[in-house]
């Protein structure tokens, strides 16, 4: 039995331009019949209206993750939901809409859209229901004018690149709190689109970059042809599936986060920027069969690329880009050990190659940044210090953790003359067994919880910003409650380091200028024509 799936018009068919996330193997599986709805005896599905015919024109094969909607009569909506739950378990729709004729539209999560595209995991009951009482429209996105929603970007940005001599334009995908923006704007960059799905991170972004920042939500909800012309695509694509601190499920992560790099593939194919800069955890490089030679002082170690990273690099190269990468430790410009892999691509027709030019053993390559913890601590009488102190039960738990593993308490101290360990999103959680704390203030105040001394403390919100290279002018909104402070620690732990982005961005611009276009090399001819 087959589901009647709606596919969009091919380019040149006269259909409205859009793009969906069908992978070719899904359509070839026999589940993608593009016929009009079934009119067999007993069918309860309405013939296509003008609106649903418009929805059927949304697909182009740009390779993003599967998206789509199911349209169903209201009387059948509860049955549809029950059948979907029986196949998927618990999930949440991205949204719902009602069409003028009364039919309901369910915007599917990634897992449901994948199931309907591929047929994997479908029950016979859901197949029969979809054939007779509902219709799946692959490639329809939440931000669609059919539903009265369409993204609005900076005035005059859509359809053109940066003016010659006016720097360059870029988009910041999985933007977080704007680390790429802070790194690239001093180089002449102008951000015309930022996408971030997390509500708290969006609030921080807006507090710093304002209502005209080009900020939108979920990038999977936006058609690529609505995105302004860009010279550079940047992204810190979700790292949790690849981090050594998690389950490392990679592209098989059940949340779908490990597949989100396909959205970057979609944007590269559709938007054709001259260059891209992506960031992720260093563990991505060796996942699934890779390895790293032993690191020694002053030597970063050699990498053997694993199959996951090899596949991701191949996907980016398949978009028509020459791709290179480098693992960089932020310790050379910041008071933190933070290794990340930076992936750079130049459009192949430009015939450019990245010249990293970063001697990571040379601490002078970003000498204007503080490089030890003492330099970033707030005064011991600052208001934020008191709220950063460990609660008594938390301090007791640290004692117990150290005793159980025969580790001295001093191992949990951040050295004032050294570096902090990698700041992670769960730093502020009491259950984190790897967090380290401030045991002594810059003025010599001891914090050991003994003899009336205060207990050790977390780095304050501002200190965490400094450890990551965020300027003191960066607004940290609403940290007056424990929950809001936790939101900030999560946001800053997931951020990119602006000073490193700036240095890598400088190298990219130098390569593009030296490549033969002068100051216009990056800011002209962006459409790829």
UniProtKB/TrEMBL annotation:
Supply the Pfam families for this chain: DNA_methylase
Basic and acidic residues biased stretches = 14-28, 43-57
- Give the EC number: 2.1.1.37
Residues forming the catalytic site: 239
- Write down the chemical reaction(s) this protein catalyses: a 2'-deoxycytidine in DNA + S-adenosyl-L-methionine = a 5-methyl-2'-deoxycytidine in DNA + S-adenosyl-L-homocysteine + H(+)
Top-level taxon of origin: Eukaryota
Q: What PROSITE patterns does this protein's entry cite?
A: C5_MTASE_1 (PS00094), C5_MTASE_2 (PS00095), SAM_MT_C5 (PS51679)
* Positions of the UniProt region annotated as Disordered: 1-57
Family, per entry: Belongs to the class I-like SAM-binding methyltransferase superfamily. C5-methyltransferase family.
Sorted alphabetically, which NCBIfam families does this protein's record hold? dcm
Indicate what this protein is called per its UniProt record.
Cytosine-specific methyltransferase
């Amino acid at each position: 039995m087959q589901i009647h799936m709606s596919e969009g018009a091919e380019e040149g068919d006269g259909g409205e331009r859009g793009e969906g996330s069908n992978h070719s193997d899904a359509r070839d599986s026999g589940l993608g019949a593009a016929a009009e709805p079934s009119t067999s005896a007993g069918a309860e599905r309405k013939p296509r209206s003008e609106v649903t015919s418009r929805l059927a024109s949304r697909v182009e094969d740009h390779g993003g993750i599967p998206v789509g909607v199911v349209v169903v009569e209201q009387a059948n909506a509860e049955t549809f939901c029950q059948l979907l739950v029986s196949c998927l378990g618990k999930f949440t729709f991205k949204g719902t809409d009602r069409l003028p004729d009364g039919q309901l539209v369910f915007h599917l999560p990634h897992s449901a859209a994948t199931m309907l595209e591929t047929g994997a995991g479908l029950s016979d009951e859901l197949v029969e229901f979809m054939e007779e009482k509902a219709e799946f429209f692959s490639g329809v996105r939440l931000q669609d004018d059919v539903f009265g929603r369409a993204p609005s970007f900076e005035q005059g940005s859509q359809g053109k690149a940066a003016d010659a001599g006016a720097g360059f334009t870029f988009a910041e995908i999985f933007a977080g709190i704007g680390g790429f923006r802070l790194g690239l704007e001093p180089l002449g960059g102008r951000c015309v689109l930022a996408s971030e799905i997390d509500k708290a991170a969006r609030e921080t972004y807006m507090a710093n970059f304002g209502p005209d920042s080009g900020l939108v939500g979920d990038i999977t909800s936006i058609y690529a042809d609505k995105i302004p012309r860009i010279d550079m695509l940047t992204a810190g694509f979700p790292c949790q599936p690849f981090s050594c601190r998690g389950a490392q499920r990679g592209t098989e992560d059940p949340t779908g986060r490990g597949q989100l790099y396909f959205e970057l593939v979609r944007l590269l194919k559709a938007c054709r920027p001259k260059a891209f800069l992506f960031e992720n955890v260093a563990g991505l490089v060796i996942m699934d069969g890779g390895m790293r030679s032993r690191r020694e002082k002053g030597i970063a170690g050699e990498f053997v690329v694993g199959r996951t990273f090899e596949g991701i690099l191949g996907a980016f190269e398949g978009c028509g880009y020459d791709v290179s990468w480098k693992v960089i430790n932020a310790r050379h410009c910041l008071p933190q050990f933070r290794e990340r892999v930076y992936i750079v691509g130049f459009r192949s027709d430009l015939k450019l190659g990245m010249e990293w030019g970063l001697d990571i053993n040379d601490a002078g390559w970003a000498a204007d940044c503080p490089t030890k913890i003492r330099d970033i601590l707030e005064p011991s009488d600052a208001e934020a210090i008191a709220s950063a102190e460990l609660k008594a039960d938390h301090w007791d738990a640290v004692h117990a953790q150290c005793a159980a593993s025969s580790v001295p308490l001093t191992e949990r101290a951040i050295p004032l003359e050294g570096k902090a360990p990698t700041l992670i999103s769960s730093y502020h959680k009491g259950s984190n067994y790897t967090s380290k704390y401030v045991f002594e203030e810059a003025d010599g105040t001891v914090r050991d919880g003994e003899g009336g001394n205060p207990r050790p403390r977390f780095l304050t919100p501002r200190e965490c910003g400094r450890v990551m290279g965020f300027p003191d002018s960066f607004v940290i909104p609403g940290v007056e409650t424990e929950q809001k402070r936790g939101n900030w620690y999560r946001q800053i732990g997931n951020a990119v380091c602006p000073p490193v982005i700036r240095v890598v961005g400088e190298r990219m611009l130098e390569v593009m200028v030296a490549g033969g276009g002068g100051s216009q090399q990056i800011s002209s001819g962006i459409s790829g024509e």
